[in-house]
Amino acid sequence: MKVCSWNVNGIRAVLKKGALLSFIEAHEPDILCLQETKASKDQVEVDLPEYQEYWYSADKKGYSGTAIFTKTTPRTAIFGLPEDLRERYTLVDSYGDASAEGRTLTLEFDQFYVNTVYTPNAKDDLTRIPLRSQWDAAYLAFIRSLEKKKPVIFCGDLNVAHTPDDLARPKENEGKKGFTKEERAGFDAMITAGFVDSFRVFHQGNGFYTWWSPWGNARTRNVGWRIDYILISPKLRSILRSAHIYPQVTGSDHCPVGISLDAKKL
To answer: Which three-class secondary structure string do you get for 92-111?
Structure first.
């Protein structure tokens, strides 16, 4: 079974370029999680008869948003964070209400949950760090609540490079957006909770990136960041067979990531 994730940075643009359908045809994911769709379902025509589509769009048009395309019918769909977590954590700031930005979508299957997330950006001046810290705590609380019922696969653009190996220039970016101690602590908490960074099971060291600045020919020179992840519950570790980054896939400033699980052992 293959699960893939991609921040498409505007699904309409990626479809127009032919990049999304080309990726699906080449890699045939059983479940495809998307972030930053920047559209609602009624604004997009996707010819994918094998897949069921689940969309969670932001209240604000053309902004944020997530979606999951799946070949298997889920038992339930959960849109956003539960009400109790939205009340417990401060998810509203001067930029808006993060819980109204279509940032996380969950499908429940028989053996596991799949969640996709587009984590709020801290902003260049770090003014959204307070909200970001609240979001990270609320999101982890949600994932842990799901795991009490069955294992979880969660993935997406977490908007943080976890370690110095996860970006090309860690010294120059220390303390900047995407590599602050607060953002990295949010990821640390996921690892401390037992969740597994699937890519690091198979690949160590630097040079593996999922996002590149559009400036300075960064992608060609591979001056990038690994900010897109697939994490899994420890119960799924024994059936994890591979994890990949697909830097050759263009169409967005991010590239897709994916994992394969031994479906016979689910």
So the answer is: EECCEEHHHCCCEEEEECCC
